[in-house]
Specification:
alpha/beta; Rossmann fold; six-stranded mixed beta sheet; four-stranded antiparallel beta sheet; 7 helices; 35% helix; 28% strand
Length: 220
Amino acid sequence: MIKLKGISKWYKTGFSNTYVLRRINIDVEEGEFITIMGPSGAGKSTLLHIIGMLDTASEGEYYFLDSEVHKLNEKKRSAIYKENLGFVFQSYHLIDELTVYENLETPLLYKKVKSGKRKSMVCDILDRFQIVGKKDLFPGQLSGGQQQLVGVARAIISTPRLLLADEPTGNLHSEQGKEIMDIFKKLNGEGTTIIQVTHSEVNASYSRRIIKLFDGWIKD
């Protein structure tokens, strides 16, 4: 499903480059559940954003299904993202001007899901996450944990082929966190490929493979 070959990421600092990722090589089969771990500053979120087509590598090749992502323009990358990916962000990334209901509906609008089916899907996910009573509230009216739940619900509502999650349970209490990870496990069992970044050994235990990063390198 995914092949990364020699992926590096750096930023210009004066006359030199500051590396965030160095020569990353990863193959991901469809249906895998992978965890990326490592200390703060290891490059975990940057790698996830490159896989999620929200950032581009400084060098290297990225293949997603049949597409050479490293050769695509932003419009074509965005089209692949909307069709195939769901993303749980560490900082939620909910749209402040939209209600919870409208935030959840947004990925379905991108996929041109018809109105009746959209309504049904949003109602189902509101019920599943026990946030029906929050549907008319705006993100700013929610606690951090509630925003996190909405972010996870939005990421999975369109049943993406690839789900990317950056610290998906970071702002949730342990019981909510377990519920989210159990949902991920069920989705993975149904065929969704999942790549998560986490510091949690408990969350990592749900995955089938762990990739460890250290100072931008994959650590064996």
